[in-house]
## 1
Amino acid sequence: MTQIDFYTNVEDKVGTACRIVAKAVGVKRRVLVLCADADAAGQVDKLLWTTPATGFVPHCAPHDPLAAVTAVIIDHEGREPPHDQVLVNLTPGRPAYFARFERLIEIVTRDDADREQARERFRFYRDRGYELRTHDMA
C-alpha cells in the first residue's frame, strides 16, 4: 500500500519539492513530479538544474526519449507514469494513479486555499486506510 507523506506549512512549494526530489534521487529512487500546468513544470525544471547547489538532478519530460532511463520525470499532462516508486504531487487535486506508487509526497503551503485542498486529499487517503505521515516544516 502507498505510503503518503504530507509536508505542511511550507513557504516555498517548488523549492521544497526539489529538495525532496534530490534527496530521493540520492538514495536511488525514481521520482515523478506531477505539476498543475506547464508553467509550474518549467519552475521545477529550472530549479532542478541548481539543486543541490553544487550540482543538478537529472530530469526530463515524460515524452523525452531518455525518460525511461532518467531519475526524475516532470509531467503536467497526466501521462501514464513510467515507474511506480515516488510521486510528488504539486497539483491541487488527487492524482488518479497515486495508488500504484510506493510513496506519495504532498506538499502544503500556508495558503488557505492550498491547505483546504490538502485537507480534502488527506481525508480521502485516510478514509481509504492509507498510511499517512505529516511533517510540519514551520
## 2
Amino acid sequence: MRIRGEYKLEAELWLAGKDVGVVLAHPHPLFGGDMLFPLLGVIAKRAHDANMTALRFNFRGVGASEGHYSGGEGEVRDLEAALKYLDDMSITNVVPIGYSFGACIVMKWIAQNSATGRWIAIAPPINFMGHPSQKELSGEGFIICGTKDIYSPASRVGREYGKYSVVAINGADHFFSGFEEAVAEKVLEFLASGEENKDA
C-alpha cells in the first residue's frame, strides 16, 4: 500500500482496533534501514495481537517510496504523513515509535510540533546523530536502550533525558538481535499503562 504525503510512501498496515494505533519509523536509510527490520515486525505483530492498529512505512527514497534521503528533515514530514494516515482513520490515540534513526525522527517531530501525546524512542543514536534536547521535548516519552549499545549508551541517555522513562535491556546492543521480544514486551507494557491511565 501507499500513504500520501510530500511523496508517496510504501507502507504496510496491520489493521485492528481504533483505540490505539502505532506508527513505526525505521533505522537509517543510508545504512540499509527499512520498514522490514525484524524488530519493527515483532513490535507490529505484538501490537496487532493486542488489538492495536500498526503502520510501518519506508521513508522517502527507501524501497518503493518516492523521493530521496534528505538528512532527516524531510523524513520528519514523512513521519507526519504516516501519523496523519492513522488519524484520518479515526484512530483516537496514535503513538509514534522510532528505532535508531527513526527514534531521532520521532524526537524531532515531537520537538517541532510541541506534541503532548505518548511517544517511544528505541535506541536513539545520540553518539552518532544530533537529537533535540530534553527541554525541547514534551509529552509522555519512553526510551529503550541496550546496555551494550555504543551508539545509544543507556547511561548517557539517562543523564540527558532523565525526565522521561528510560529502560535498559540487559545484554542488548544497538541491533537488539535476540532481544526483539524483550523490547516488544516493554513497548506493549508502556502502551497498556497509558490506556489504563486514560480509563482511570
